Amino acid sequence: MSILMPILIGLIAVTLISLIPEPHRRTVNAVIVAGAGAAYLSGGGLGYAEFVLPIVMTYVAYRGLTSYAWIGVGWLLHTVWDVIHHLKGAPILPFAEHSSFGCAICDPVIALWCFAGGPSVIGWIRARFSREPATSATSTTQATSGTNATSGTGATSGTNATSAGPSAAG
Predict the structure, then answer these.
(1) Phi, psi values for residue 45, rounded to 5°
(2) 13: burial class by Cβ within 10 Å (0-12, 13-18, 19+)?
(3) Which one, out of 20, 64, 87, 147, has a CA that is 20 to 30 A from the CA of 14?
(4) What is the dihedral of CA 39, 45, 48, 50, to 10 degrees?
(5) For 50-108, how does the pLDDT look when each residue is reduced to its tens digit (9 = 90+)?
(6) Which helix H or strand E contains 62, and what residues bound it?
(7) For the whole model, what pTM was predicted?
């Protein structure tokens, strides 16, 4: 349960963030990752070394304003900081002993979503379960007898049934 809950929290986080329309979604993510860099400043237990992560994360967040990959890097940097704090016994939430461990599990979930380009989770679910193809470049069903079937899903009479690929749609 100590691993499943942080994964679930990460999935909920990316789902909620993905509700923000682009181009604002990436900007909000950059601001969030910048704030995550300062999470341990109020008593993280590493003394003056606590100032390293906010400085680095400020740069990473700035680069994240134009690139989801940089935001993903920021979440992975925060994961490293979480692991250090967990091993040192200085959790992100002083009243929750394993909170840094949970954060170290949650952050890579968000990072993976960022490395995927921060897509809309709801849009992905709709496309996945809808009967309509997500894009016009999807392949068609091969017909048992058709004449160069390059679009649609039905069979036509003739010979040479083929399937439409990305090059046929473009």
Answers:
(1) 100, 0
(2) middle
(3) 87
(4) -20
(5) 899 999 999 999 999 999 999 999 999 999 999 999 998 888 888 888 999 999 999 99
(6) helix 52-64
(7) 0.73
